[in-house]
Specification:
Layout (H helix, E strand, L loop, with lengths): L3 H13 L15 E11 L14 H12 L3 H7 L9 E11 L2 E8 L2 E8 L4 E6 L4 E6 H21 L1 H7 L6 E11 L2 E9 L5 E7 L3 H16 L8 H10 L2 E8 L3 E12 L14 E4 H13 L1
Parallel strand pairs: 6-12
Antiparallel strand pairs: 1-2, 1-11, 2-3, 3-4, 4-5, 5-6, 7-8, 8-9, 9-10, 10-11
């Protein structure tokens, strides 16, 4: 049934969708389907990283520029054939959007999972298709469930704040246009490069022409705010997106430890059936808050 990884997966699922944070409303709301791919590669698994001082920001940026000129498929070919599974991860997310409802489908360890975000009724539904189970929780319950976890992290950070400030310098977010432009999925995009809020060297291909997506992204931002999932370390990135009034279709990031590649593979505008956002008939309904609380109690024992 549900385990602690489900609780954390729900939490980090919303962090994953931060890329949808947007700008002021421009009118029509997007309805249809988006398909997103995310790839994570351990930097040291690339043979090309040998001889590169990845801790040196200038060398890391140079290495990143070389890698990011390649497509996703070309980067995958650079990996050794016997690369360990834990050092390479690829996920495909199918996102359905209709009004103030969003559904995200993914495959996790061979099981189809669906997350339905109902921003009108402020609820989250997590569907496990193999088990025919639907776990339901409100945004308020999610906040209550994860608040102790967030508080503990905050207490630890305050406790070691002085030590961290002397040993760890907070990365300065900086992203600037390069003037380089190309079409992605037939859409005009411009390349921005710089450092993200975690210190990763980053390439972002941003479009400013998909106005109907902006309203939807703003709705999602509003929902995340209600759930208190807006993390402090992405504030600068959110402000940057608002200022450029665009959304990234391809983002590539590199640090000494990991390379993260995110790409929108498909944007399909279509009328969707409301049944997509309902619990399938015959599925058992469970209270997710109670399940997560029990798992949290076991975790802290």
């Amino acid at each position: 049934m549900c385990n602690l990884s489900i609780a954390y997966r729900v939490y980090f699922f919303f962090i994953l969708l931060i890329f949808l944070i947007s700008v002021p409303s421009f009118g029509a709301v997007f309805e249809g389907k988006l398909v997103q791919r995310e790839v994570r590669i351990s930097t040291f698994e690339l043979p090309q990283s040998e001889g590169v001082n990845l801790e040196d920001s200038a060398e890391l940026e140079k290495f990143g520029n070389q890698l990011f000129s390649k497509s996703f498929e070309e980067l995958k070919k650079l990996l050794p054939k016997d690369v360990p599974k834990e050092t390479y991860d690829e996920s495909i997310f199918t996102i359905y959007i209709k009004g103030k409802k969003i559904r995200v489908d993914s495959q996790e360890k061979g099981e189809k999972m669906s997350y339905i975000i109902d921003m009108k009724n402020n609820i989250l539904i997590t569907i496990k298709w193999n088990e025919k189970v639907a776990m339901i929780t409100s945004f308020e319950d999610l906040k209550e469930t994860f608040s102790p976890m967030q508080s503990q992290v905050q207490e630890l950070m305050e406790k070691y704040k002085a030590q961290m400030e002397t040993q760890i310098k907070k990365p300065q977010f900086s992203m600037k246009p390069t003037g380089e432009k190309k079409k992605i999925l037939g859409i005009d995009c411009e390349l921005f490069t710089g450092t993200d809020s975690e210190g990763k060297f980053t390439h972002m291909w941003i479009t400013r022409g998909e106005s109907d997506l902006f309203e939807t992204f703003l709705n999602l931002s509003e929902a995340m705010s209600k759930m208190n999932f807006a993390e402090e370390n992405v504030d600068d990135e959110n402000e940057f997106i608002r200022q450029v009034k665009g959304v990234d279709l391809i983002t590539k990031r590199i640090s000494p430890e990991v390379i993260v590649l995110e790409e929108i593979l498909e944007i399909q505008r279509e009328k969707l059936s409301g049944n997509l956002f309902n619990i399938p008939p015959g599925f058992r309904k469970l209270n997710m808050k109670e399940m997560m609380q029990k798992q949290m109690e076991k975790f802290h024992k």
